[in-house]
Amino acid sequence: VEFVESAARAFEAANPGVTINIVWYQKEPLYAALRTALTAGQGPDIFYAEPDQKEYMESGLVLDLSDKLNWDNIEPWATEVWGWNGGVYGFPLEAWTVELYLNEAVLEDQGVTVPVGGLEGDAFVDAVKKIRAAGITPMSQGVGDRPYPGAFLTHEILVKKLGTEDYGKLLRGDGVSWDDPRVREALDYAKAIIDAGAFPESFSSLKLGEAHRYFHTAPGAAMFQMGSFYPSRAFAAPDAGGQPEDFRLGIANGPIPPGAACPECKTIAVGGSFVVNAASAHPDIAVAFLNFLATPEYGNLWLEKNLVQTGIKADPSSITGENAAYFQMLAAANEGAKYTFGIPVQQMQGQAKETFTQVINQAFPAGLIGVDEVIAMMRAAY
């Protein structure tokens, strides 16, 4: 809110005679209001949308921005995630990646080093075994109130093993099956990590906020695979659930399976974006406002205000203040990354999505079922 409001006022100051009126909605009321307004050829000049809302493009309700925005100042993945039928329709403000957060003090005590690019093959399994043997939980995680974090380990291994194209085919059930030998090898690798004692005994009941605290405060874990929205909780004051002030945080990529087709592949979830109403009476001004935002200065401001990534190209090396080191670590962990867009529950539909949540997010990482059962259950879901 503060980011958009301050940018609007700055744009008005730079463009005398232009007024930007901002109306804030919760998502569901917003979507309902937009359906009515847009089909009547009305609605706001710019509005919030998410990349999976293809109906806006299919119905011709939003403007093609492919030749209108300064794409040099926008992350290259934006054109892919918002691309449709040769056009590009969205300006992504908010995104997050799946990262492996590190408790550097615990890892140092155990003589374990995790490079930013991630540990490969048996090296990660051996690290988990070593940490567990010391009576420490290797990886905090819990699925008590969310349908996705328990799957982070497995789906990040799968995308590295298969590469983004075949991984997408696997999730869609389009040309790559769950009984593909590569998928089995990836699941076997994830199973080895799980069986080595990676997760807390309370995995099935531990809630998202509790898993954060488990990692950085009590009892403390060596690693925590989580979305890069981690700071939204962890950077709060310690008495409000944030990490201790002297906590030594690191960031790396997740474990790399043997025979990985794409060790640098990982997930990015693109959320809140801006689109321009095709029926706008002021399309040039709407586009000008988006280009006004598309600068490294506003990219950095977004990072500092919202503590999560953006589609605006930022310059973390120029950020100062208490969170500067964090953003530089995050940038290093994503240098050269190749992305799949959306976590599986954002890419999948229907029964496959429901089964994935029950199997890959819950039962498999909890150690309740094995690889053969995972393959059989996922195959049956398509």
Q: Can you tell me the CATH class of the largest domain? A: Alpha Beta
Helix content class: 40-55%
Percent in strands: 5-15%
Shape: globular
Mean pLDDT level: 97
Q: What is the count of helical runs?
A: 17
Largest sheet: 6 strands, mixed
Can you walk me through this structure?
- With 382 residues, the protein is an alpha+beta fold.
- The protein has two domains: 2-94 and 271-314, D-Maltodextrin-Binding Protein, domain 2, CATH 3.40.190.10; 97-267 and 341-380, D-Maltodextrin-Binding Protein, domain 2.
- The chain has helices spanning 2-14, 27-39, 55-58, 77-81, 104-109, 122-133, 152-162, 164-172, 181-195, 208-216, 231-234, 283-293, 296-306, 324-333, 344-347, 350-363, 371-380; strands at residues 46-49, 83-84, 87-88, 91-92, 95-103, 137-140, 221-227, 249-252, 265-270, 273-276, 338-341.
- The strands form three sheets. Strands 5, 6, 7, 8, 9 and 11 form a six-stranded mixed sheet that branches. A three-stranded antiparallel sheet has the order 1-10-4, with helices on one face. It has a two-stranded antiparallel sheet with strand order 2-3.
- Helix 7 crosses helix 8 and helix 7 packs antiparallel against helix 9 (181-195).
